[in-house]
Amino acid sequence: MLLLSGCDALSTGDKTPDRVEDGTAELDPTVTGRPTPGSLATTEHVLARPKARDADGLAALAGKGDGTREDAKRWADRWGDAAQNPVRADFAPPEKGTSVDLRFTGERSALTVLLGPENEDAPYDDTFTVVLREGQEEG
């Protein structure tokens, strides 16, 4: 009887840490500026999606009206190769809004990621969505 209880305890579920499942464990961005824990976590999730060439996962990070599957596919296609390289994430000062310039080694252009509050009624709760609309690149 005790043996069966032990077997049940072993089969109660996957213990894989979230950071391994979502691809952020592999990331090692150089960070400048002053990100909040929420803006840094969201940025890491954004970085993991093009690296994995995962347009659907990237689209899932966008808020309503902040992007479409086509926008996410365009980002994944455009930035997938660059995302295989080391990256520096330059966070804008908080008073200038929540934006991050992602500069991949070997890439001349920066990917500017705009983060919006996940809940418009609670803009300071440190949870974010990503704006995927066209026009987020700098040259």
Write a structural description.
The protein is an alpha+beta fold and 139 residues long. It starts with a helix and ends with a strand. The protein contains five helices and six strands. A hairpin with a 7-residue loop joins β2 (87-91) and β3 (99-104). The longest helix is centred in the first third of the chain and has 15 residues, at 37-51.
Task: Write a brief caption for the model.
Helix content is 32%, strand content 20%. The protein is of the alpha+beta class.
Structural key phrases:
single chain; 139 residues; alpha+beta; 6-stranded mixed beta sheet; 5 helices; 32% helix; 20% strand; globular; disordered C terminus
Mean pLDDT, all residues: 81
Kindly state the number of beta strands.
6
- Taken as a percent bin, the fraction of beta residues is 15-25%
**Assembly category:** single chain
Main β-sheet description: 6 strands, mixed
Label the structural class: alpha+beta
Number of helices, counting only DSSP H or I runs of 4 residues or more = 5
Helices and strands in order, then pairings?
Layout: H1 2-10, H2 18-21, E1 30-32, H3 37-51, H4 55-60, H5 69-79, E2 87-91, E3 99-104, E4 110-117, E5 128-131, E6 137-138
Parallel strand pairs: 1-2
Antiparallel strand pairs: 2-3, 3-4, 4-5, 4-6
